[in-house]
Amino acid sequence: MPVLRRITNLEFNPEMKTTNCLRSIVFAGISTVCLLHHAVAGNTKIENRIDWPKFFERLDPVSETLPAKFDAGTFVGNGMLGITFYRDGVENRLRFDIGRGDVTDHRPFNYSNQVGRGRLPLGYFTLTPAGTILDGEARIDIWNAETRGSVRTDRGLIRFRAFCHARENVMNIDLEAADGEQGARLEWHPAEARPDGLELPANYQPNPPVETKQVEPNLTVSHQKLHYGGEYATAIHDISLQPGAKRYLISVCNSVVDPHPAEVAEKTVRDAAAKPIDDWLDAHRAWWHDYYPASFVSIPDARIESYYWMQMYKLASATRADGSPIDTSGPWLRKTLWPMWWWDYNIQTAYYPVYAANQLHLGESLTRLMARVSG
């Protein structure tokens, strides 16, 4: 029986590029489907007795140290929104980057295509402990589509859980601090609305500064208007659960979809906060639990098997049938020279798994984009 391998430096490549290894896995999946078809044709009874939580638990990527950089971070997504967790460049700080796949500038293309319609960063949360960080760990729970971890300091322990709700435009970050860490702080840092990593043209006119408003003591809204029209907003609603424990609900709305993004984002987090958490969490997990069985493949090599299921997890984290098409970053934007869609090779390989993995519906985000572009 394959055993769980633990990874001390979990590398995350958000560019979704297909490798020869993945192609081999895909063909293995096709062979499995053919064998099952043959068994059915021969009137062989097939029963599904898979213990899904146990099956996936042994394949979860686990970092036995706190991820040291973006590429090694643990990540979650729902096809539009995304969170990446890793250590900040600052010595005693951790970071949750957030992103939304369709937030771009609205400038004319003569600014250059990267700058004119390139992706824009939203911002990030920093987690600053009360004490000095000693060590910690992080894990991607593939079956439930969430990331969990712990941070140990010289004053106590901080546990976290983060996920992007599968059916709603909401991200969730839970923090629980014990012992002397109840003074740990999670702070929101909205990003400047400019491409990060590109050389800007000489005639570049900056977007207006982001306006962050404390609507209520536990509700913050960052509203970003753009120089060439359009706007987007991020709403953060924090809820005290018990001493040392808080839940942060985050929504990002874009005027491309919502004409009044600040109002919609605020209403979205309020509505999410009003729902019973168990029912809300069950709805998120139910989507993923329905998704995985359609792509079931088991391989007698834990590392390759885990790689396959990570691609299935990453694929549905990066896009949905009615979501944003996958660009070179997915919803996990970072500093890059390629902040948009490219039609040379990247987008085609990102969608390659939908055919052999029995997830054709996820490819609709690409075909719908092509239909819009073709007029």
Describe the main β-sheet briefly.
Answer: 9 strands, antiparallel
- Mean pLDDT value: 88
What radius of gyration results from the CA coordinates? 21 Å
Across the major sheet, the strand order is 1-6-7-8-9-14-13-12-11
Q: What percent of residues adopt helix (DSSP H or I)?
A: 25-40%
Q: How are helices and strands ordered from N to C?
A: HHEEEEHEEEEEEEEEEHHHHHH
Assign the structural class, choosing from mainly alpha, mainly beta, alpha/beta, alpha+beta, or little secondary structure. Answer: alpha+beta
Strand content: 25-35%
Give me the count of strands: 14
Estimate the global geometry from the Cα principal axes. globular
Ranges where pLDDT stays below 50 over 5 or more residues in a row are 1-41
Overview in brief:
The chain has 375 residues and is an alpha+beta fold. The chain has helices at residues 20-41, 52-57, 113-116, 261-274, 277-291, 302-318, 346-351, 353-356, 364-374; strands spanning 62-63, 74-77, 81-87, 94-100, 123-128, 133-141, 146-153, 156-164, 171-179, 185-190, 211-216, 219-225, 231-242, 245-254.
